[in-house]
Amino acid sequence: MRHDVIRHEFEAIGAKTAVETLAGAGRWRRHGLIPVPDHGINLRGDMFELWLNRDVEVSVPEVQSRARHLVLRVGSAEARTYLCGHDERQWFVAGVKDNPTTVEQAMRLLQPPAVRAAVIAAKLKHNQQFLRRNAAFIRQGEWFFVPAPEFAVEHTQ
């Protein structure tokens, strides 16, 4: 994917980007980066910065403009996948395992197993599963608070 296409996809969610091609470890070191097999991604204020080796494949399988989120895939055989977007207050980037292709899949994979179990147990409707507050949890940033009425604290003196 060309740099202008990557910028266009990020612009669709309202984000600024800087994309640079880095060839050779020397250029990585000058930027203060640790060389990785094919790329680097960083947030600097309100801008996503991407550093890509010349031959790396980059794709954006899904963009959700209204939600201000997109899925970014970097690499081919050993691809890394990121959920990039804007939460209630700021831009974020989160690495996601299992190479999801949709924003919803990525968000679901980022929820801890206990949260997913609580969502299933609460039988939440599809449009409620990723809200900050619902019957299954309260989310604050990356923290999830799951009700546990059966949990008892033993008081000691």
Task: Describe the protein's topology.
Elements: H1 3-11, E1 16-21, H2 25-30, E2 39-44, E3 47-52, E4 58-64, E5 69-74, E6 80-86, E7 91-96, H3 103-110, H4 113-122, E8 138-140, E9 143-145
Parallel strand pairs: 1-3
Antiparallel strand pairs: 2-3, 4-5, 5-6, 6-7, 8-9
Describe this structure in words.
The protein has four helices and nine strands. It starts with a helix and ends in a 12-residue tail after the last strand. The chain has two domains: 97 residues, no CATH class; 38 residues, no CATH class. It has 157 residues and is an alpha+beta fold.
Q: What separation lies between the terminal Cα atoms?
A: 64 Å
Order of helices and strands: HEHEEEEEEHHEE
- Shape designation: elongated
Can you tell me the residue ranges where pLDDT is under 50 for at least 5 consecutive residues? none
Tally of DSSP helical segments:
4
Radius of gyration: 19 Å
Structural class: alpha+beta
Helical fraction:
10-25%
Count of all domains: 2
Beta-strand residue percentage: 25-35%
Strand order of the largest sheet: 4-5-6-7
List how many beta strands DSSP finds. Answer: 9
Rounded mean pLDDT score:
85
Biggest beta sheet summary: 4 strands, antiparallel
A few lines on this structure:
The chain has 157 residues and is of the alpha+beta class.
